[in-house]
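Supplementary Data S3. Sequence and structure tokens for construct A.
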Amino acid sequence: MTISPTENAPQTTARLRGSGLTVGYDQRVVIDGLDIDIPDGRVTTIIGSNGCGKSTLLRCLARLLPPKAGTVFLDGEDIAHVRPKQVARTLAILPQNPVAPEGLTVADLVGRGRHPHQRWYQQATAADEAAVAEAMEMTDTLELADRTLDALSGGQRQRVWIALTLAQGTDLILLDEPTTYLDLAHSIDVLDLVRRLRDDHGKTVVMVLHDLNLAARYSDSLVVMKNGAIVTTGAPAQVIDAAMLDEAFGLRAHVMTDPISGGPLIVPLGAHTRTF
């Protein structure tokens, strides 16, 4: 049975929320009339099949894509009316396919994360340099500082982009597929970092992930989307079951208890395997 979007929603203050969001590209509507509250100080992951609107929603929440209707609220204000620099001091986003000028070094790129905190005539301060160094240390990219982006592997580049996002020093962090190009070990490293950002620094993190088992293990709350709408939200143990997986993903699976985390663990079933 489908769970209503608010039935399992955590009762926490939402610094970032969307009301009545209709979002799309040109004349194509991807999301229509969607409401969402992002729990403060938690890790929220948006999941759903390809093309369901996950990245579109994230871009709208970050003010990269203005809604055709509805409002995104940041700290109680319509984000469309907040000065861009103030938004950038509060909210950072790592898009799915970021780009940078050719020949830029890692240190220069990560340093650009400090721009919202600087004036046009101001050189980097000691605080800026410390923030950059800390971000690179957290992402294990310090040894790459003098290398150019085009000399890095896909996984190294992804960690550098995450360092840029962290150097921005915001309380709200939006990550669109942060484990793209990463092998499993480095994916775990990134998600462990996300958890530390929550635990040690009180950050609010919103991610889009495709790996459902990683989403279940590392998230406080899941938002399940299908066809531009929210199917259900809540803690992974409340949300993930065989019925939801079939409805939202067309996936036949057995859900068992993860022996490590105690949360749900998804075991896909073969095409001719009967459900348990």
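Construct B, processed identically:
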Amino acid sequence: MRLKDQFQFIRQNIKKNRVRTMMTILATAMGCTFLIVLASVGYGLQESVVQDTLEEQIVTKIDVYGYEEGDNYRSLTMEDISYLEKVAGVKAVTKRNQLRQIPTFTLESYQAEAMAYATDFASEKKSGIKLNEGRLPKNENEIIVGYHFRDYLTDITEGENVYDEESGEIKEEYLYQDNLLDRTIEMTVRKQVDKEEVTETIPLTIVGVLEEPSREWMKDQSVFISQDVYTEVQEFTGTPGGELGVDPQDVEEESTNTFDEVTVYATNLEEVQEISDELKSENYAIYSVVNEMKQINMLFTIAKAGLILVGTIAIIIASIGIYNTMTMAVTERAPDIGIMKAIGANPKTIKQIFLFESSYIGIIGAIIGTIVAYGVSFLVNVGLPLIIEMAFEEDMPEGLQFSSIPISLVFIAVGICLFVTVLSGLRPAKRATQIDVLKAMRREI
């Protein structure tokens, strides 16, 4: 019996029992839709959380906290920096030192206190540091400032009048309003001499402003100075990083040649794990966002597997209808089966016909279910945030996605649907091959 004839035989049966077949397909489609939509919640939330992490931290970034020596950790030196720069897959190594006092920055009649960090701007450029405006420093007395630095420059001539009595915040009109680029600002540092405070003022030129932090609640008012200015402050105070309250005579020479923050940047995401493994084997204490992402992805993988399992139960319930449909089809077509066997049809061919029919129901149901699932997913992403905001009067996080249907989920759902439907048709198909020809002709099945 030709394949074309088999499909024609299937179509004739479906036409005769159109309503029953359509209801079975509908049940299968509903099960498939339920599976996809349920699992899509896990995929959607995973995408939102992972994307959230990617926006907050650079995925190629590896923080190196120190070198393990026995039970202790030591700070990193230029010798460590040289080693890190030679590791395969490393694009850049940035090294920063925090000024160990909070200097005062003065621009005309405006003043602000901010943390200052010494860095190598050539390394920062290699790492891909982003600016909102301006450029990176080229000379030793050029600096870049955080995105919110200007918001803390306050007119000191107004005294306490700059603060709002109700909120306690600085009034807008007393904040610096002009452009900061190419403006000369004075950094004042201090030291203790015979219990008296001595200050030194270093003129600096602002040439760049860092990009706005990815989080709305984050405020970046930092100032990044050159290593030369950092050294100038150390020479003035006689202490590491200009630290106050330390007797210069008690300072060890080695302590002035270490770094507070060292960050390794990989050339791409694939290199991060290999670099991390190598640094760990060399006793460096490190942290990478990839470690965090692994834990997040593991949790969501377990959740998605559970949701898919629950969704599969719906398809299994739908398979009961398929089993019933195929059993009735075998009973109703007993005479046709008897005729086919009488003219020499192979039992395998008869079995194949009924398996094709159950597969047809599964495929059509899966296609319809997938289309409906995409529609439901769209409505969930559009409507659910609005409902939650109206019900709880809270704004949803920007970019939050409740449902996402990747192509892999579609293949998983269709595969499960097809497997279950074929499995449901096996017993009726086998029964069809066992029909006695004479009894079938007499309709005594």
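The chain is about 50% helix and 20% strand. The mean pLDDT is 82.
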